[in-house]
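Predict structure. Input: DUF2789 domain-containing protein, 80 residues.
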Amino acid sequence: MFEQQPTLELLFEQLGLSADEAAIETFVKEHQLNADQKLHEAVFWSAGQRDFLKSHIEKDDEWAIVIDELNQQLHVDSTH
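Output follows.
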């Protein structure tokens, strides 16, 4: 069982991405999505990453909160 509360850094580690603050900030800036683009359908995810994101969103578990946070950050430019 996963005992540590998921964070954005842990999510990035889980997805196999660099998880330091600068790397996360760069990723968010470089991967902004259109308003109608679902997070898990973005072209830059691998199949495994996509499956991880989609399954935890559907389960609405503790990861879903952090995934939603990432989703919001990747849609910042689309809200203007």
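The chain has one domain: 8-79.
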